[in-house]
Amino acid sequence: MADPYATLGVARTASEADIKKAYRKLAKELHPDRNKDNKQATERFSQVTNAYDLLTDKDKRARFDRGEIDGDGNPAAPFGFGSGGGGQGGFRPGPGGSPFQADGPDLSDIFEGMFSGGGRGGGFGGFGRKPQPKGANVAYKLNVSFADAATLAVQRITLADGKTIDLKLPAGLEDGQQMRLAGKGQPGPGGAGDGIVTINVQPHRFFTRDGFDVRLDLPVTLSEAVLGASVRVPTVEGAVMLTVPAGSSSGKVLRLRGRGFHKKDGSRGDQLVTLMVDLPKQDEELIEFVRGWADRDKSNPRAAMGV
Predict the structure, then answer these.
(1) What is the per-residue DSSP string for 31-69?
(2) With contact defined as beta carbons under 8 Å apart, do 82 and 130 qualify?
(3) What is the DSSP letter of 106?
(4) pLDDT tens readout for residues 162-196
(5) Stretch (H or E) spanning 290
(6) Residue 253 backbone phi and psi in degrees, to 5
(7) What's the Rg (C-alpha) of the chain?
(8) 39-55 and 58-65 are packed helices; what angle lies between their axes, rounded to 10 degrees?
(9) pTM attached to this predicted model
(10) Is 232 in contact with 239 (CB distance < 8 Å)?
């Protein structure tokens, strides 16, 4: 029944940011991928994850600080029972073996009226019984393609026992996000632990993520930029047609709405397409045309910059 603060190595007054910082450091050191065949590191990683989960849940952290639950999230023994009787506020056996002799008067008669256990020192209906521990959590790492992460495609994952399950990705998915699979950890006297899945979104060869938007640099020909055109553009859900306005310059951004990542509120980001004019190399006709045109063009596109 570890103290989650001690497990993460933080003070009880630690902020949420301090807790996250400590967890990231320990998780990086203890991650199963870096400690293969090291059961102690795997167990320690599970303990660190459990401590982080408890302390980042405001309700559970408050209940733990008040002594209502233990470090595993289980209800704590009431009135200090099971504490060994030696600490402040604990009960010590009195004359005759009564467990209700504190530092003042004999309170056994009062407690006998509260609990239906028969004689003094009798049964308490299960109060104070230590909960059985659950099995250890099991850490998993799931590599998800960029397109699957954006579209929330269902992922198949193989568990430690060899069984496979289909995992539905959540809206608002971020790289490094963890998902909890209840009861998919190691078995234990109090039930199985959980599976902790860390999502690793794979980079894409031409898409990049910007918040919930997807960015793409799209090469276009000089004629497409000057005269305008309808061109095919890749998206995370397949190619679509995009209209390039006539007279488009390199750097112009066009928007494809609803082609980005899913947000928690049910909406989606967009795909932002940046046009990149791709000039042909050593085209003599184009070179001669531009030379003649340059003699007539006296504009300065950098005038607004003061140069």
Answers:
(1) -GGGSTT-HHHHHHHHHHHHHHHHHTSHHHHHHHHTTSB
(2) yes
(3) B
(4) 889 999 999 999 999 999 999 998 888 888 999 99
(5) helix 284-296
(6) -110, 125
(7) 32
(8) 90
(9) 0.56
(10) yes
